[in-house]
Records
---
Amino acid sequence: MLSSHQIGQVERAADHIAVLQKGRVILAGAVDDMKSDRKIVEGIFPSETIALDGLRRDARIERLDQSGRILRLTVTADGGGLAAMLSQMGAQSVRIVDLNLEDIFLNAVAHGSQTADVVEAR
């Protein structure tokens, strides 16, 4: 067992992790599984008016951020399917970004401290 706030060290040494916040496990699992499943899906739309209806209820989306014409989805599964959905919704450009363990950790612990640009977080 290893306890550390140095996420890079944890990523190099551990096969499985558990992230604790205020005494509760908020994230646990195999490092490789977390890194393969969690992605950022980013779409750039022609205007700041983006219809988010279906996205608000999608269980694959952990966090949804909008900053102007850019919509970022932090997803836990099926990044390719969600990228296709953004294209169908009218995104002019879509990309999928891999997350490292530090990104995954920061997203997990940041739920209580969202920025003003956040549209919705689960």
---
Amino acid sequence: MTKYIKEKTFNTENQYDIIIIGAGPAGLAAALGSKHGGAKKVLIIDRDNYVGGILNQCIHPGFGLKRFSKELTGPEYAYAFQSAIERENGIQYLLDSYVHNIDSNKTVIISNTGMGIRKLKARAIVLAMGCREASRGSIHIPGYRPAGIFSAGTAQRLINIEGLMPGKKIVILGSGDIGLIMARRFTLEGAEVKGVIEKMPYPGGLSKNVVQCLEDFDIPLYLSHTVTFIDGKERVKGVKIAAVDTKGKTLQGTEKYIECDTLLLSIGLIPENELTRNLGIDIDPLTMGPIVDNMMHTSEAGIFACGNVVHVYDLVDYVSEDSYIAGFYAAEYSKKNILPSKYKTELIAGTFIRYIIPQYIIIPTNGSSNSISFRINEPLKKTKFILTADGKNIATITKQYAVPSEMVRLGITKYLPDIKGKRYLRIDAEEVRS
């Protein structure tokens, strides 16, 4: 776990160049980007007592391969950024603090256990609040409300930070990455994982996690299945599962009862955007995050967003890359109250593409991120991605495969001359037939 930073690191000033909401991987990278962009006074606010956010409970390895070219655990990855920040002057933390509101004048209202309610002013703000887990209520599972139902992230915190074991016989609904990782974690702690239940005909997590967390431990994965009933009044006794058709409807005669004392829910993540909505920032209905350009600037002047607030990432390395950019251009804005942009191109999701981040490419005078990220709607084998600018094909990029659970990331630096001045850039996917 990254070390606790005492409240004395916060001074009594109310005016900052940059205020960053969230001290997780996105907020830490944004702070570093802000300093490298020229900001002199940067404040990071978080409601936890530690920096690092979700990384603190992700004690498994697999982080940092792209950013640091070596494999780190979550706390090690957070500490690497924290150490880099502490070598900079002018970055402060305010922990154990809750942000109640942000207005269009960039005034941030917070409450802190030691100082009460405070108003802080910034020249630019970076939203880095992360995301939260979807709950049982969002999928309407019939049954009672017994003890023993947890979200996968809650179970992860209980085991890895609190040292508590939620149960001994586990069923996991949903094959998101946290659920897959927790299947392995429970097994290593001596529990019996009866199976992972996934409604879709393909896994919801990264392929490597399916292999390393399920196949390597002989944990069954039930694709095209769902939980239809939770048994037990005081404590979970078991669940009924059944196969579903392509429309998600239960198939009669396929029900099966699995005895268990714990049901874990890994049914999706939702970007944490209450503050974003209160500001009136444009929200993308597909990502449930703010619409941004390639400098991570939202529709509200001087408000930037990064990390899982924008959309749910697969790899923290990419979170850091985009968040650094958000911080860098927040610093640019704080110095001039204007961003160095001339051209704006809209990105359009074509065939098989669910959504694209960023939604706009702005080509500034001093460069910015030239990577785009997107997800596809269904699994494809050998795939080619076709980039079209105002109806003209400018590139075709081939990948060996593409699946909905893995974000596709493309560098487009060499295509910028063809994109510059165009109204839109459309991306289509097409399976290569052999």
---
Amino acid sequence: MSPRSKEQIEKIRDASISNILEASLELFAIKGFDSTSISNIAEKAGISKGLLYNYFSGKDELLRALIDQLNESETNLMSQILDDDPRKTLENLFSAFFYELREHNQQWVFVTKLAVQVDKFDFVRALVTEKYNSYIDLFDQLLNSIGLKNPKGEALLLAGMLDGIGYQYLMIQDKYPLKEIENYLIQKYCHNEIN
């Protein structure tokens, strides 16, 4: 058997890290950060605990890597959402929000559990604050562009509504009228004149 090439080693490394992050996300969402051990994560990822420590120094570093990965995914998604037409951008934002809520439920559970422990992780509070402010600014700009009289107030209300929708859906799941609310928001903000 010939030795592995540098590319093969890199692929194995990337696959291991991906498995570790996926296992971490699932376990942090189900059990919570504090109740999940490195052993749990290694077992779920199908690797030894020692190998996991080759990639991550502990749960805090894993948490940061997981948040970085989610942040990068969000940045990529946002680049696909923005449009010259503010109503189309809003429609894309709503569609993406509801799609992510339905299709990546585990991420939402993880983020929600983390959010209620925001005092435990200063870097999480800083990131959440930064994200919140950037979304408020984006909503404010878009709503101002479509001619709302109080775009800042509407942006604050809209952000609160989306957070509430996310929490309610996580609690109620299939019984929640997610598609109906998505259609209502798109109709209200993207297809009607609202002031």
